[in-house]
Amino acid sequence: MKFESQLLKGIAPVVVLEILSRGQMYGYELSQAIEQRSGDILTLGKGTLYPLLYNLEARKLVKGKWEQVDSGRKRRYYSITSRGKAELAKQKEQLKELTAGLNLVFGGALAPV
Amino acid sequence: MKVKYPIVRIFIGAIVGLAVAALLGEPDSGIWFVIFLALGATIGICVGAIAEGIRHSNSVARGLLEEKGLDLERLPVSIADFIKLVIRKMRYRKKVQAKVMAELTGHFEDEVRECKSDEEKEQKATELIANFGDAKLLGILLRRAKKRCRPLWRTMVARTFQAIGILILFFIVYVGWFLSGRPVITTDYLAQLNQMVRPAADESLNAAPLYDQAAQLYGKCSDDFLLFFAENYKEIGDPEVGGRFRRGGRLRAEELANDIRRLLSAKSQDNFDEKRRLQIESEVGNAAIVLLAKRYHETSLIQRKFIKKWIEYQKEPLDLAVAGARKPYYWQEYGNEQKTTEMMYVLMPHLAKFRKLAWSLCWRGWLRAEQGRYQEALADLKSCYRMGQHNKGNRILIEQLVGMAIEALATQTLRDILSEYEIDSIILTKLQKDFEQIIASEDFTINFEVEKLFAYDAIQRCFTQDRIGGGHICPQELKVLRTLLGYDRSLFEHMIEERVWTAPLHVLFTHPNKQETREMAERYYDFWKKMARKTPAWTCSEGIDLERQSSEIIKANILLEILAPQFGKAIEISYRIRTEVRALVTIIGLLRYKRNKAFYPENLTELMTNGYISELPLDPWSDRLLVYKKTDDDFTLYSVGENFKDDGGEVIRDYDGRVGIWVGEGDAVFWPVPKPETPPTVLQRLKEESKLKQQER
C-alpha cells in the first residue's frame, strides 16, 4: 500500500531508530529489515534512506563506522546512540498518545502501539 | 618527475612564481621589484597548494574504494553511471564524496548479489535506479545531510571563508566601478577668472599693452656697451666678498669678453654672425640684470657705471613702463598652451617682465637722484610702486606676491634715496601727497577669490559627478595633478615609503565626496580670509597656529592637502608691505617736519596733530605704534619685527654684510636706513668673530 509521503515523513526516523535499537545494521540490511518487520506495509525509498541516516548521524542519534566483513570488503554499520534511545522513547510516547487520540476519533478501530 | 611530499610541491610553486616575477620585473624599480617578487611567490604558493589539493582529493577517492574492497567495475554500467552522477551532483568535499560513493556501491552490490545473469542484473539495476529517484535531488539531499554532519568549527571556518570570498568579490567589483569613474567638467572657471579680473573699463585704460611693449623692447644695447663689458668684466662680474668670483663665473665672463672682441672685430667682414651677436647681447643683458638686483650701496663704481650705461639703452622701454603705470587698470587674458579650460595649466609669462622693469626703474631713480634730478627720480619710484599695485587685488596669489615685492622694492629705494640726499620740503610734500593718493584706496590684504577658483576647478576635474555617494575622487586624475605640482613620487610610492597603509582604503571608502570637498575648500578659504585681516601680533597673542588650524579643516582630504597652499607667509608679507608703506609716509612727514621746524617732534602724535601725517603708523607685530625715538639730530623708526620683541632697533646682517629687515630676528629698522657693510668691513668682522670663537674654545 502506498502511503502519503507526508504521513511517512515523520514516522521514518522513528522506524529506523526502533530497528537500530535492536542491533546495528548496514544500509541495505536496514532497508530490508524495515520492509520485513512492517510486513511489507512500510517501504522506505532507497533515495530517502541514506539522506535519513546521515541526518540522524548529524543529530547524533545514530553513529556509523566501517567494519570489515568476511568477504574482505567493508561495510558501514549504523548503531543507535544513547541520545537516539532517548529520542526514540520520546517519539514512541508521542505516537502512543497520537494513536490513543485517533482511536477515540475513529471509535476504537486502531490497535494500540 | 614524481614529487613525493606535498610541501615540496608548494615549495616548487613558490620558486617558479619567484622566478617568473624576477624575469618579468624590473630590478631597478626598487621597492616595486620587491613587492612584485613577493606577489609572484605568493601566487606560486597558491598554485602549488591548489595543485596539491586537487591531486590529494583525487587520490583519496580512488584510495577509499580500494580500501573498502569495492569496485564500480563489478556493477552494471547503468548503476556505475548512476552512482557517479549522484556523486557529481553532490558537489562536496572529495573525501566525503568518496565515502558516500563507497556506501552506495556497497548497497548496490548487496542488491544485485542474488542475480544470476547479466540480464537479471540489468533489470534489477533499472528497478533500483527508479527506486532511488532523481540523481540530482539525491545528490542535493546527500550534500545537505553531510553538511549537517560537519563539526561546528568546520562550519564556522567554511562560513568565514565564504564571507571573506563575498567581501573580496564585492571589493573587486567596487574597485572596478570606482576606477571606471570619470569626472565631468561642468564649469569653465578659466572664463570666470578672466571675467573676474577684467574691470568694467575700456581697453585704452589697460596698462597691459604698454607693459608688453616695454618688455619686448627691453634688453637691446649697442656695441659700445658690449665693449665696455669686455673691457671691465672682471669688476662687473658678480664677485663675492674679497673679490673672488662665484664658482665658474669668472671663466664664463672671460669667455664672453673674448667672444665680444672677436665678434666686433669681424663686424666689417662678410661673415659677421648676427645670431651670435644676439646671443651675446642676451648674456650681457643677463649680467646687467644680476647687478640690477643689488642695492645701490652693494655695488662698486664700475658696476654702477655699467648699470648706468645699461639703463640709458633701456630708456624707451622704461618710459613705456612709466606710461603704463599711469593707467588706472591692468589686466591680462589668462590662458594655457593647450587652449583648454584647465586652470592648472594657466601660464603667466607676463610676470617675468615685471622684475627687470621694476629693478631698472628703481635704478634709474637712484641714478637720477645721484645727478640731483630728484623729481624725476621720485617719479620713477612712484611708477614702480604703481606697477606693483597693478599686480594686486583680484589676482592669482603669485601675481599678488610679485606685486608686493615690487612695492617693497620701490619703498625701500625711496627710503634709501631720502636717506642719501637732502631733498627739499616742497618736493617732499608733493611726494607724500602723491603717495598718499596712490595708497588711498589700496587694500593691502591678500585676496583669495581667484585662488578659490583654482580649487573649484581641481575639484571638478578630480571628482566624478553624481555617482553613488555623491561623486568620489578619481585616483587617476589625482596622479596627473600631483605630477603637475612637481611631486616626484607617485601616491602609491608615497603610501609605501611613508607607511600610510590605510590610504587606499581611505580613498575607496571614507574620502570626502565632491560636495563635502567643495564645502571644505570654502571653509578653508574663509578661514584664511578671516586670518588675513588679523595682525601677526593678534594671531601670536591668541596662540593661533595657522598651519595646524588650517590643516585641520582639510584633514583627510587628499586633493586639498595636495592643492591648498599655506597662506601664512603670504599674509605676513602683506603686513610687511603695509608697514613699510606707512613707515615711508611717516618718514617723509618727519623729514618735512625737520625741514620746517629744524628739529624732530617728540613723538608721532605731535607729528599728526601738526598735520604732517594723516594717521598714526601701526605696527602689526606689536599692535601698537611703530617705535619712534628721537636722537640728537636724527630719529629711529622701526617695527619690533617678526620676533614680536623690541630689540631696541637692532639691525641684523647676513654673512656678506647685507642688511635684512624681515629676517625673524632683531627689529625691522626703517630709519636710519642701515647700509650694507663694505667688503673690508665684513672681512674685519668675520676675522673678529672667528677670533672670539677660538678664544671661547
What does this structure look like?
Chain A has 113 residues and is an alpha+beta fold. Chain A is built from four helices and three strands; from the N terminus they run αβααββα. Chain A is elongated. The mean pLDDT of chain A is 85. By secondary structure, chain B is mainly alpha-helical. Among the domains of chain B are: 6-168, no CATH class; 191-373, no CATH class; 449-566, no CATH class. Chain B has 29 helices and seven strands. Chain B has helices spanning 6-24, 31-67, 77-90, 94-112, 118-132, 135-148, 152-179, 189-197, 208-217, 223-236, 249-265, 274-292, 301-313, 315-326, 350-370, 374-390, 397-420, 425-439, 449-462, 475-484, 491-497, 503-510, 514-532, 536-541, 546-553, 558-563, 568-597, 604-609, 679-696; strands at 618-619, 624-625, 627-630, 635-639, 652-653, 659-660, 668-671. In chain B, helix 14 packs across helix 16. Chain B starts with 5 loop residues before the first helix and ends with a helix. The chains are: A alpha+beta (113), B mainly alpha (697). The interface between A and B is medium-sized, with 22 and 28 residues.
Topology:
The complex is a heterodimer of chains A (113) and B (697).
Chain A: H1 5-20, E1 25-26, H2 27-37, H3 46-58, E2 62-68, E3 74-80, H4 82-106
Antiparallel strand pairs in A: 1-3, 2-3
Chain B: H1 6-24, H2 31-67, H3 77-90, H4 94-112, H5 118-132, H6 135-148, H7 152-179, H8 189-197, H9 208-217, H10 223-236, H11 249-265, H12 274-292, H13 301-313, H14 315-326, H15 350-370, H16 374-390, H17 397-420, H18 425-439, H19 449-462, H20 475-484, H21 491-497, H22 503-510, H23 514-532, H24 536-541, H25 546-553, H26 558-563, H27 568-597, H28 604-609, E1 618-619, E2 624-625, E3 627-630, E4 635-639, E5 652-653, E6 659-660, E7 668-671, H29 679-696
Antiparallel strand pairs in B: 1-2, 3-4, 4-7, 5-6
Helix pairs in contact in B: 1-2, 2-4, 3-4, 3-6, 8-19, 9-14, 9-15, 10-11, 10-13, 11-12, 12-13, 14-16, 15-16, 15-17, 16-17, 16-18, 17-27, 18-27, 19-23
